[in-house]
Amino acid sequence: MKEKLKYAVGALLACSLVAGFMPLIEVGAMKMSVMDILKIGVGTYGDTELIREVMELFKEYLRPSIITVVILIILILAGAFLTVVLDASKAYIAALVSGAVNNVLVIILCVSVKGKIDEVESAFNFFGLSSGIRFHVSTIVLWILLYAVIFGLSACGIVLGKSGQKTEGARDIMPENLSDRKNPWEADLDPKKQAYLERIGQLEQERKAARKATERAAGQTEGSTFHGAIGGRNGRYASKVYPLQEKVQVFFIKDGTGEVLITGEKSGNTTAGVYYISEYEEYCVEPYEKNSFFLTSGQPLGRDRRYHLPRGTEVYIGDRGHAFVLA
């Protein structure tokens, strides 16, 4: 749209020459346009003696304005031409500059003509033109409206051009050379992000190990109903499986050295009890000490409460050095 808009602005600039053929000055019953002033300068008059007498007076006083009229016509045509041939980013600026210069010259012309007319107004009374000399308002209003539209369209074109540049800049996200693209996995990571990724990898390895322990427990109980099993992750139970009986609770206890043991009897050092419920394929865990039984995420399980955990849940007693999986 911004490309087509400049042609409309150029056409309006060229059409402003039409105002030069409209009446600008009224001398009694006689009306004169800018083009009439130009004709006076080159000596083109009417046929009657009266008109020739009047025009001779105008020629004497309006001769300095002829140069201004010629310059104005040339600048209007030049501004219209540049607006059409230049690219959109420069065309509207050219239209604004041309419009501003044209209006300055028109103001100079009107002031100059008005001053000269005031000097000769008394002379026209000799020819019976006693009604006075004045500017034709409709021509001035048309000129003002025409250039108001030109300035408005030019400003609109500039705004559209800037918004288009912003949009194009936002789309230019691809590198000029694909070889310049970097692998995000090879970029230097923040230490916190690196630690987080390492922790994710560790958890993934733990899940794989728990899955293997579950498969081993299922293999050991093949041919009979599965009643649950506890797989060791490290310590004395590393890579070992402790099979359970249907709804028979076993206990985690700590001996004098701090080692965690699995036993079928509850004692004073018991940390938690656990048994398997085959109907729901889940384990019932009941911690007996505060902050002693944890999920692998680090969440502690509350004292003297029962928790139903699904198969494959990883837990640890006290610290991660005593980790187990509820196979």
UniProtKB/TrEMBL annotation:
Spans traversing the lipid bilayer: 7-25, 65-86, 93-115, 135-161
Chain coiled-coil ranges: 193-220
Species of origin: [Clostridium] hylemonae DSM 15053
Superkingdom of origin organism: Bacteria
Protein keywords: Coiled coil, Membrane, Transmembrane, Transmembrane helix
Origin organism lineage: Bacteria, Bacillati, Bacillota, Clostridia, Lachnospirales
Name this polypeptide is given: Uncharacterized protein
